[in-house]
Design a protein that fits this description.
4-stranded antiparallel beta sheet, Alpha-Beta Plaits, 4 strands
Amino acid sequence: MRRVTALASEAMTEELVVQRVEVLFVGSAPTRQMERASGVQDVEVDGRVLRCTVHGSFQPFLEALRGHEVISLKSTDSGE
């Protein structure tokens, strides 16, 4: 089973999925954390709404969210 998981992980990394993400926060958006997160680009903030593009793994993006309460999160294929 581990071998299958490793192969799937390698395939995902090679494809480098690009997603456009919009997040609504209870408080202010963690702008600096997002700007520093690996693979996160085009960070825009409008009040409590943060929009960005995530290239590849979502893990750095999710780690940047830690400690911030999210009301909604929408992710769509950017078509790149």
